TrEMBL record:
Residues 343-463 form the Transposase DDE domain. Residues 19-112 form the Transposase InsH N-terminal domain. It comes from the Bacteria. This is Transposase.
């Protein structure tokens, strides 16, 4: 033992006890949490019990519990019971909370009762970053990712799944009844023993499934999640189906800070304008550039975003089935903007004949009856009857899509930039959350959890960019 570093005796007393502040270095991230929360106007943000009542048992100030949660999410400690345990043994938390040790019920109730305040604190940090000129490029990548809910896939039911279970139970009941009939005919056969309790359970299960079938058919989304009613069965990145929430984020391409986040229960399509509009409001700037993947491609959505003053870059999806049919794709028909006509692969001109409206989209229809009926390569152009012609449909705002496609063609690195930007925060947050991402149920509670995760992520990013002491100085300036 003489050649090893020796520890201090556990029974050793000191004349002057160490101060708790001595155990927390000046550049410790816990000091950033303390400075950030102390600078917030908690009452304005919507936190409850900021002003204590003059009677009754005193409660904890919301700043104490907010510090506890932010510290927890920064250090992958998300449950109230684990936070309670850490407050009893963690030196950093003892310093941060002033040796207060709230119980798990108080900790859990704070997150449940202060959803508005927690989301406000997350937005306030984004505003603080904006004031520090962290979003000067005004270029944001938007994407969605599926985060697992508490609800297991076995507790989620769709019409086909309910019918599968009903058929399975009915077959089992029929099998048991057949065995009972066989036993009555030949009582000596010991192999056909039937459990009456098992049969009763199956009959009760069938009644439950029939009731569940009605519930599923009456549900707007045609599916029911029994553990977390708000969670939905969705396809994940690897085309697997999981009960999830679809988290939308807009991430700054320069510093990878999350400027806005939201949770939706549908696919990414149709979410572009909703997310981008919130980014405009958060940045107090309409002139922003947005990039997204082809899952967000929607003509009406892109038009709405364009009308709001932003520049949108979304790759166009080719949903045409022409290639499978063995006929010319629409891309082979060239549009002449000056003459407002299409030139077909045979070199003929297709004039603008009339305007129609399909599924809420106004389109101009182009065709040439004479040229098409006499065309030698007509079989490669259309599979319709001889008296019908190939018609080209052009959205009346198609120029917006064409301009967007030209920007994408001129800047082939845009898709790579989007992936490098938006996948980083998702991967980091999911790693922090663990295998089961959310620990709470229902959309409002899950939204609060996500706000805490985003706030912790943005804090971590800012500390990496500016350093802990530099960030604290900027906060107090």
């Amino acid at each position: 033992m003489a050649h090893h570093i020796l520890g201090q005796s556990r029974t050793q007393t000191t004349l002057f006890p160490e101060a708790l502040d001595d155990f927390v270095t000046e550049d410790n991230p816990v000091r950033v949490v303390d400075v950030f929360v102390e600078g917030l106007d908690l009452e304005t943000l919507g936190f409850e019990r900021v002003v204590a009542k003059g009677k009754g048992r005193p409660g904890y100030h919301p700043a104490i519990l907010l510090k506890l949660y932010i510290y927890g999410y920064l250090n992958r400690i998300q449950t109230s019971r684990r936070l309670e345990k850490e407050s009893h043994r963690n030196i950093e938390l003892m310093w941060l909370l002033g040796r207060l040790m709230p119980d798990f019920k108080t900790i859990a109730d704070f997150r449940k009762d202060n959803r508005k305040g927690i989301k406000g604190a997350c937005r306030q940090f984004v505003e603080m970053c904006r004031q520090m000129n962290m979003f000067t490029d005004s270029l944001f990548a938007i994407d969605g990712s599926k985060f697992k809910a508490v609800n297991n896939k076995s507790k989620n039911y769709t019409p086909s799944k309910v019918q599968f279970h009903i058929d399975r139970v009915e077959k089992s009941i029929q099998k048991y009844l057949s065995q009972m009939d066989s036993k009555d005919e030949n009582e000596k056969e010991s192999s056909n023993t039937v459990s009456a309790s098992k049969l009763a359970w199956l009959e009760q299960r069938l009644i439950e499934l029939k009731a569940l079938e009605v519930e599923v058919s009456e549900h707007p989304d045609k599916q029911v999640s029994q553990t977390d009613p708000d969670a939905r069965l969705m396809k994940t990145h690897h085309m697997e189906r999981q009960v999830c929430y679809n988290v939308q984020t807009a991430v700054d391409t320069k510093h990878h800070l999350i400027a806005h986040h939201d949770i939706v229960m549908t696919t990414d399509r149709g979410q572009l304008t909703l997310v981008a509009k919130q980014v405009q409001q958060a940045m107090k700037n309409k002139d922003i550039i947005v990039i997204a993947d082809k899952g967000y491609f929607s003509r009406n959505d892109i038009k709405a975003s364009h009308d709001l003053g932003m520049t949108v870059n979304v790759p166009q999806t080719d949903t045409s089935g022409s290639a499978k049919k063995g006929i010319f794709n629409k891309s082979l028909f060239k549009y002449d903007k000056d003459k407002d006509v299409y030139i077909c692969p045979a070199g003929e001109t297709l004039q603008n004949r009339f305007r129609s409206k399909e599924k809420g989209v106004e389109q101009d229809v182009y065709f040439n009856n004479v040229a098409c009926s006499q065309c030698e390569i007509r079989a490669k152009c259309t599979t319709s009857a001889k008296n019908e012609v190939r018609r080209m449909r052009r959205w009346i705002h198609e120029s917006i899509i064409e301009d967007m496609q030209k920007r994408l063609d001129d800047n082939p690195d845009i898709p790579v930039l989007r992936k490098q930007t938006v996948e980083h925060p998702f991967g980091t947050i999911k790693m922090w959350m663990g295998a089961t991402h959310f620990v709470t149920k229902r959309l409002e509670s899950v939204g609060t959890e996500m706000s805490l995760s985003v706030l912790a992520y943005n804090l971590k990013r800012m500390m990496s960019i500016m350093g802990t002491t530099g960030l604290m100085e900027a906060m107090m300036a």
